[in-house]
Amino acid sequence: MSKSKLLTKVREEIRRRNYSYRTEKAYLRWIVRFVKFQGLTHPLKMEKEEIVEFLNWLANERDVAASTQNQALCAIVFLYKQVLDKPLGAFDNLQRASKPKRLPVVLSSKEARRILANMEGDARLMTELLYGSGLRQSECLRLRVKDIDFEFNQIWVRNGKGKKDRTTVLPEISKEKLKNQIERVKLLHQKDLDKGFGKVVLPKALSKKYPNMPKEFGWQYLFPSSRRSKDPRSGVTQRYHKSSSYLHKAIKTAVSKTNVIKKVSSHTFRHSFATHLLQDGYDIRTVQELLGHKNVSTTMIYTHVLKKGGRGVKSPIDN
To answer: Is this structure's pTM higher than 0.70?
Structure first.
C-alpha cells in the first residue's frame, strides 16, 4: 500500500466511524509526521520500537504537552489497528510527557459581568452561555436551534465529550436574546433556501437516511457563520457555525477593555460556572451532571476556591 493509498484508507476509516473533520485532519497530520520522522519508511515495515522512538522524541526533544503526545499516540494506534489490522498492544519504554497540575483560572461574578459588559452581539450571547450554562466552547458553537428548550428551561448538549448527550441550565437572562437570535437564524435560513442552499452538516448518517433533514430549520446552527462554504468532505455548499477564533478574539478584546489581569479564555467561563454553583451550595453531583464530567473527581478540582485563598488559613499578619 503506497503512502497516498494509505492516507486515503485512513481517511475512509475515520469517516466510516463518524469522527469529526478536526480529528481527521489531526490524525492524518500525525501519521504523515511519524512516517517522515522515520525516513518515509512504510508503517508496515516498522515495529513498536520505531513508534516509541517517535513518541519519546516528541516528549523529550520537542517538549510537547501530554495531550499533544497522546493525540499522536491515538493517531498511530488507529492507523495500525483500524487500517493496517496490526494491533500494537502495550508500549514498553514509552516516556509520557509530563502533565502539569494546574488549578483552573476562575473569575469572580463581578469580573465575569465586567467582561460581558464589554461584549455585544453573538459573541456576548455565546459567552453568556459559557458562563450561564457551563458549556464547553465547542458545545456552544455546535448548538442547533432545536437544542434550546424554553418550556423546560434547559439546553440540550448533543454528542458532547465522550459522545454523550446531556442537559444543562438555560439562563433566564439569555432567554429573550436567544428568542431573537432564533428569529434572525430563521430569516437567514429562508434567504439561503431562496437561493437554493440551506443545508447544514448532520451528525452521523442522518442526511443519507433523511435527505430533506439538512434543510430543516430546527437543525440549523444557533450561531451560523456569516458566509456559506463548501464542505471538505461532501463538497456541498452549506452554512457552518461560527469559528472558535471568532469567539476567542471577542473574549480577548473584551478582557483588554477591563482591569481583569487573569488569563481568560472561553474555558475560564465554564470553570467559573462550576465554581460559583458550588459556592452557592449546589451539590457536587448536580454540578458534575451539568458539566458532563464522567467522574466526580474531575469536578472536585473546583472545590479549591471554596476554602478561600491559601487553603482557608488566616495569615498571622492579619491577627
So the answer is: yes
